[in-house]
Amino acid sequence: MKQLYTLLLALCFTTAGAQVTIGLNEMPAAGDDLYRSRAFASPGLDYTTTGPAQTWDFSGLNITADETRSYASVGSTNFVYALIYADLAFNPNRANHVTDGVDIPFNQLLPITNPYTFFFRSSSQYKKVGYGAEIAGIPVPITFTQQDIIYQLPLNYGDQSFSSSNYQLSIPNLAFYGYSQDRTNDVDGWGTITTPAGTFDALRVHTTLAGRDSINLDTLGLGFAIPRPLVHEYKWLSPGKRVPVLQINTTELFGLQVITDVWFWDEPRSIDVVAPLASTLCAGGEYTLTYDETGSYNVGSFLIQANTFTAELSDANGDFTNAVAIGDVTTTQSGTITITIPANTPPGTGYRIRVNASSPATTGNDNGFAITVVPGTPPVANATAGGPTSFCDGASVTLSADQDPGYTYQWLLDGNVINGATAPDLQVVAGGAYAVVVTNTCGNDQSADVAVTVDPLPVHVLDQASYFACQGDSVTIAGVDQSGLDDLAYQWNLDGNVLAGATTSTIATDVPGIYTLVVTDTLTGCFYTTADGVFQAGAVPTATITALGDTSFCAGGSVVLDAAVADPLATYAWSLDGNAISGATSATLTADPTGLYTVVVTSDEGCSSDPSAAVEVTENPAPPQPVITQGADTLYASGSGSFAWSLFGNPIPGATDPFIETATSGDYTVTLTDANGCTSTSAPYTYIATGLTPVVSGAPAVFPNPSEGLFTIRLPQGPSAGDQYRVLDVTGKLVMQGSLSGPESTIDLGAQDTGVYFLQLLSNGTTHTVRLVRR
Q1: Same domain, yes or no, for 100 and 167?
Q2: One domain, residues 612 and 666
């Protein structure tokens, strides 16, 4: 565990190392228990390299001893000291924490007991203010004449400081001792430093101590001063740590620095047995023991043995006096040890296990609960596969453990318990690393992993569930990838049969049926078949027009055209001469204008027919309305065709000529029917019969009348110079004129339309009008 922690710290500081500031929080305080390890003072340690953005590596230090220094409040000491060093602002000897011991030279030779060193910490400085020691059982405060200012705070790269300090110690009737010192601090580097305890951001402080001792022996009357060798302290201070993460002390001898001490911040060493550990073990059984350590242990070097963690088994009462070594591993980190319970271990219920370290020697804590050792054979776990362990999603493989009536089973996936998987066999459908833990009264064992690989299916879906087109039209069916896989092959099926050549993810087709797409991952062979895509083709109706009557008729008539099909939901679109007839959407159409009629029929599925064959409709115009004129007792009708006369609206039998002679008064009409059967009826003509046949003396005669065009004019008196004639139609328009010659003259109206004309004769100064009927 510590190895992982150290690695994470190292990675963090490697990428995020930065210049730091050291202040009040990094100075010892009352209540602190500061632990550090002493390292072997190898002459090859590089303590001189420094500067900005440095990376110092002291991870190979080996431990020779350790030290815990505790700090307490001034008030927790002797009343005399508490008074002299009271934490009061006006007190020149003010202190706010104290630790056991003193660094007075030769203190072992002096008759002092219960020594203390008093310090004061503030935001601006950290200093040593004095000592306390009992001489002959009497507490004696030893205050500094000049206090030793250890640091001017805060510390930053490039800072320098100097301080002088001194104190005196007088032992009546024995000796006088005095000490003075010059301290120089130079913050000469920053960066990251790695020790066996981890990696830290740090400031490097180089301290030089120049000390002098003064001794006067009362009993001999001798006094002398002793200059000390120059001492160098190389300290790496890190935020949050109240003791240097590394300190290397040297002493100058003949101009050379000799390393005298190496200390680094450390955690207290401890070793714990941690789960899993069964409460019942078998004599002769082999197990894996997990342990967790704190603190630092030696990697080994010249004269320093590499650390070994050794597991020990107590006796049946938990006593380790005659502990039995049951396994070991050479390392400095937490981990596991393969242990073997000796086969001759007596059965018992009070055994304990602990792990000890050899370098430095450390006794670990026992496992914390009683262990039962029984005779028997520990289980052996073995897992085998009943088929391929690499398969496509949707398939499976059965894993089996060796079976024994005394075993219980628990399957694991990627190291995690599979809930409910407690049978000897396990059907596996998902990928991962599978193992089985088998347990009996002697303990448990875990099999080697069986790696199962489940290849994903190349899942596709069709872009639609159903498709529709009119018969003869095509649709495009597409497979949509849901898998994200590459190297895929495609094959389309129609009604369960392979479609040759249809090997892309889309298909265009006009053949109705059920389509499926089979997609294969060519790398794994896994395939996937889509759900059905149903393609339905709609029937295209045939448009046919049936005329429900004569398609040729007279003006005002019509004919019904019928295009109805069996589909009651079909719609219709009629056209006349190729142009859509607005609103004509019914199955039938009443047609009256002349032209060519067609229809397009669309089924309820939206399929439209081709235009039908055209049906020609002809609307014949009515003939011109005949006009009735009277000549004596004869009524004449204009126009050409067949005639039917009526009196007061009642047909006159046999009256089918263009004229009628009558002696009956009344309202006469005549109906003209042309060659198309179309009729036109004249306006009523009121005829008044006199009962007499008028004879007009000297009146011209015109015959035949009616005629097919040739009319003969006879003048009773014969022609005279200047006789003229004119022919007018019923509208009064002049259509012919000329001179009369001889007793009879002929005019030809054959080039004129049939109908009634009026002949005006100008003879002998008299005008005669004769009605002509051109048939």
Answers
A1: yes
A2: no
